[in-house]
From TrEMBL:
InterPro entries: BFD-like_2Fe2S-bd_dom, BFD-like_2Fe2S-bd_dom_sf, FAD/NAD-bd_sf, FAD/NAD-binding_dom, FAD/NAD-linked_Rdtase_dimer_sf, NasD-like, NiRdtase/SiRdtase_haem-b_fer, Nit/Sulf_reduc_fer-like_dom_sf. PANTHER family: NITRITE REDUCTASE (NADH) LARGE SUBUNIT. Pfam families: Fer2_BFD, NIR_SIR, NIR_SIR_ferr, Pyr_redox_2, Rubredoxin_C. Residues 427-473 form the BFD-like [2Fe-2S]-binding domain. The lineage of its organism: Bacteria, Pseudomonadati, Bacteroidota, Flavobacteriia, Flavobacteriales. It comes from Hyunsoonleella rubra. This is Nitrite reductase large subunit NirB. Keywords: 2Fe-2S, 4Fe-4S, FAD, Flavoprotein, Heme, Iron, Iron-sulfur, Metal-binding, Nitrate assimilation, Oxidoreductase.
Length: 838
């Protein structure tokens, strides 16, 4: 029996073990794994998620039992202290000796701590292990108890530094990022994309300090600040150092293995070191004179080492390593692939930039315009997977390559179909899973859905960046085999939203339990299916959220948006943004009476924040007496129809945008949909109502209105597409009735009109055939259904205040009339805000 010792039980060390048990014959080898941390391998890529629940088990790659089941001896909390290459033994820090036939070094890297004066002070941390994070949490809790407005800085603006910045935010400290370079993520982003990322992060509350060389850490015993130069200081109470990594090669150096000038154990393309019995994988391995700090190359190295030890000597690492990566940093998409930086002599760069939406897209193409060579995406990386595949496989690109990154409404986003990829296309780089393998397990019958594909191939179990493409490939392959793809909403129903819509409509169900008992899989339902069924019954019967409030989302349940301190905001409807002075005065008096924070919303309404649960009906009652009704800001329903002043006042106005906007908002108020809906009406092409950024928008032109559909702002902004030109008011309403009802009938749960329209087979042209040409013969039905909803509208606030039974749910405690006395506000400018989280 051959003895294999793996030194290091991080992600790559674990992956070696996993690959080995898949390949090796049982009983031929004995593996012993040493890890100096007190737990089995865990997912360091998603380390920041530890702050969400502080559950180390949730990050485990595999439990200790997995090692035992595969006859692997796992030794944790014990460091290997010495390697004797002559006797082929290792000695641990506990003075225990073990012999090996093959030794695999997977010791990874350690954080680089710059030699800054004072860096040893209390309150200075590195960001590497769960123990590091636990220490940070304890120190932050102590800080906030002493100083509620405590600050923390992160030294380093690279990938890990920005992750550490998120950690600082999650701990409730004021976050500062300090970077020596003049831009963030200097190894992955160019100057312009870095600037877009900087603006986005600053808008989220991070303070960014670039071109800062830290001279010393200030403080007497514990950190109080950072000094960059004369009169250039930053007061901070805690510091997280994330300034890069250094290979853990001390064992290799001590036993005489060849190492690089700047660190790392030199390996060839078989992962062998200068000793034929010793392999190095992951961040300790110096291959091509480079340390590769990504998971995917480390996993590939582990697979090659496994093959070599098992005698498959033709298995070798490729000469060129793909460093493409997609990440979500603090909720912001960032991706780069191929050659993100490219000299003008090698090709051309095409750039799309929208700083107002914090979007940046760059692709680099060959001089002849026929090959995609690389690119950078910031703010929206939805197209990363397909762009990456086009680059990897040398696939043809459009004659106008800009169409690969332009918004769809500008004629772009021509990315082809996932089934056009060659079978050898590597979809999951972490696990080296190809398109052919994914399609193969489906075609063979081993897999019948995405979950099966993941189980069979492990695709998507690494960084997770390939999950959308894995799902698309799975569904496309199933359809190609003539198998219906069921998009079930949850485990309680074997139906998608569209199926349930038809069932409820035909059967006339009005209660959740009727649907569950007759068409469900048992159980009591869940937080996914309950709101979906509630929304469907509202869409079909015009039921309000009051009817079965227990199955609603929390905001719908209480007819208001819950805020971070447990209070609620109240948004009355102001159709079209038009409001009388008397109503403005009423809003001001009500806000003053209940001491509410007030703000003009992005949809030109007035939001009243800070109402306690028991105050909601009292506030609604007063608002109703002044002619207001619910604005449904809490619901998946029509929010606002934004208008400019149009021809009523504006000298450029071509039509009465305000009047028509009010008519449309009053028509569609309260209708429940798969997602929130917003509209806009502009009186001329100057577009002051931003109608093309809405789910539906109208722009007045000579001869009538131009109607646009399927746009939205938010995280993935999209321009609405021109649907019909120069139509009158009556035709606009007819088309919108049909469009919105068709959307409500067929969209998935929580799918915006933009995403629905983009995924709709046949796209905009098919939609025109259905809505304008009545291709399916359902136009009249759609209009009747919408008119039914319009006729049945009831204000939910009025329902609640007029029904004593409904009023019972607006008490803080079910068994007491007392109020919640734990809610604390602090001053902000001339108003108030919730006390910061501790």
């Amino acid at each position: 029996m051959k003895r294999i010792i793996v030194v290091g039980n991080g992600m790559v060390g674990y992956k070696f073990c996993e690959k080995f048990v898949e390949k090796a014959e049982s009983g031929d080898y004995k593996i012993t794994v040493f890890g100096e941390e007190p737990r089995p391998a865990y997912d360091r890529v998603h380390l920041s998620e530890f702050f969400e629940n502080q559950d180390a088990k949730a990050l485990e790659m595999a439990p200790a039992e997995w090692y035992a089941e595969h006859d692997i001896d796992l030794v944790v909390d014990e460091r290997v202290a010495d390697i004797n290459r002559t006797s082929k033994t290792i000695t641990t820090a506990k003075d225990r000796e073990f012999s090996y036939d093959y030794l695999v070094l997977a010791t990874g890297s350690s954080p680089f701590v710059p030699p800054i004066k004072g860096v040893e002070k209390e309150g200075v941390f590195v960001y590497r292990t769960i123990e590091d994070l636990e220490g940070m949490l304890q120190y932050a809790a102590k800080l906030k108890a002493e100083k509620p407005n405590a600050r923390a800085a992160v030294l380093g603006g690279g990938l890990l530094g920005l992750e550490a910045g998120k950690a600082v935010m999650d701990m409730g400290l004021e976050p500062h990022i300090v970077e020596f370079a003049p831009k963030l993520m200097p190894r992955q982003l160019d100057s312009r994309s870095s600037q877009v990322l900087k603006l986005k992060l600053e808008s989220m509350g991070l303070n960014i300090h670039l071109s800062k060389a830290t001279n010393q850490i200030l403080g007497n015993g514990s950190i109080t600040g950072m000094e960059f130069g004369e009169d250039d200081m930053l007061d901070v109470d805690m510091l997280v150092v994330s300034a890069g990594i250094r290979p853990r090669d001390e064992l290799a150096r001590a036993c005489g293995l060849e190492v690089g000038v700047r660190g790392g154990v030199v390996v060839d393309n078989t992962m062998k070191t200068s000793d034929d019995s010793i392999y190095a994988i992951g961040e300790i391995a110096l291959y091509n004179q480079m340390i590769y700090g990504l998971v995917a190359p480390g996993y590939d190295m582990a697979a090659i080492a496994v093959e070599q030890i098992l005698g498959k000597t033709d298995a070798m690492m490729p000469q060129d390593i793909d460093m493409s990566t997609k990440l979500k940093l603090i909720g912001v998409d960032v991706a780069s692939f191929g050659e993100p930086f490219m000299p003008a002599s090698k090709g051309h760069s095409i750039i799309f930039e929208n700083k107002t939406q914090h979007l940046y897209k760059r692709i680099n193409v060959s001089l002849d315009g026929k090959k995609l060579l690389g690119g950078i995406l910031v703010g929206d990386a939805n197209d990363y997977s397909m762009l990456h595949q086009i680059y990897l496989n040398g696939m043809a690109i459009p004659e106008d390559p800009s169409q690969l990154i332009l918004p769809a409404s500008e004629g772009g986003a021509i990315l082809g179909d996932v089934m056009d990829l060659p079978d050898e296309a590597q979809v999951c780089s972490c696990e080296s899973v190809t398109k052919g393998q994914i399609c193969g397990v489906i075609e063979s019958g081993e897999a019948t859905d995405v979950g099966d594909v993941v189980s069979c191939t492990k695709a998507g179990t690494g960084c997770g960046g390939c999950k959308p493409m894995v799902a698309d490939l799975t569904n496309a392959t199933l359809k190609s085999l003539g198998i219906e793809v069921k998009d079930s909403i949850c485990e309680h129903f074997d139906f998608n939203r569209q199926d349930l819509y038809k069932i409820i409509q035909v059967k006339g169900y009005t209660k959740f339990n009727e649907v569950l008992d007759n068409h469900g899989n048992g159980g009591h339902g869940c937080e996914i299916c309950k709101p979906v069924v509630a929304s469907l019954m509202a869409t079909i019967h015009a039921d309000t959220a009051n009817k079965e409030y227990a199955i609603q989302d929390s905001n719908d349940r209480f007819l208001a948006n819950i805020q971070r301190n447990g209070t609620y905001s109240v948004v009355p409807r102001v159709p079209g943004g038009e409001i009388t002075p008397d109503k403005l005065i009423a809003l001001g008096e009500i806000a003053k009476k209940y001491d509410l924070y007030t703000k003009i919303t992005g949809g030109v309404r007035i939001d009243l924040f800070g109402a306690t649960l028991n105050q909601l009906p009292l506030i609604w009652k007063e608002l109703i007496s002044h002619g207001f009704e619910s604005g449904h800001a809490y619901g998946k329903s029509l929010r606002t129809v934004k208008t400019c002043v149009g021809s009523t006042w504006c000298r450029y106005g071509m039509d009465e945008s305000v009047s028509f906007g009010i008519e449309l908002e009053n028509r569609y108020r309260g209708i429940r949909a798969p997602h929130k809906i917003k509209g806009g009406v502009s009186g001329c092409i100057r577009e002051c109502a931003e109608a093309r950024g809405k789910d539906f928008g109208l722009i007045a032109v000579e001869g009538g209105w131009n109607l646009y559909v399927g746009g939205n702002g938010g995280a993935n902004p999209r321009h609405a597409e021109l649907f019909a030109e120069q139509i009158d008011n009556e035709t606009v309403i007819k088309y919108l009735d049909r469009y919105l009802m068709f959307y409500m009938r067929t969209a998935k749960p929580l799918q915006r009109t933009a995403a629905w329209q983009e995924k709709l087979e046949g796209g905009l042209e098919y939609l025109k055939e259905v809505i304008i040409d009545d291709k399916l013969g359902i136009a009249e039905d759609l209009e009747k259904e919408m008119q039914t909803l319009v006729n049945r509208f009831e204000c939910e606030w009025t329902q609640a205040v007029n029904d004593p039974e409904m009023m019972k749910r607006f008490n803080h405690f079910v068994n007491s009339e007392e109020e919640d006395d734990n809610i604390v506000f602090v001053p902000m400018r001339d108003q108030k805000m919730p006390e910061p989280w501790v």
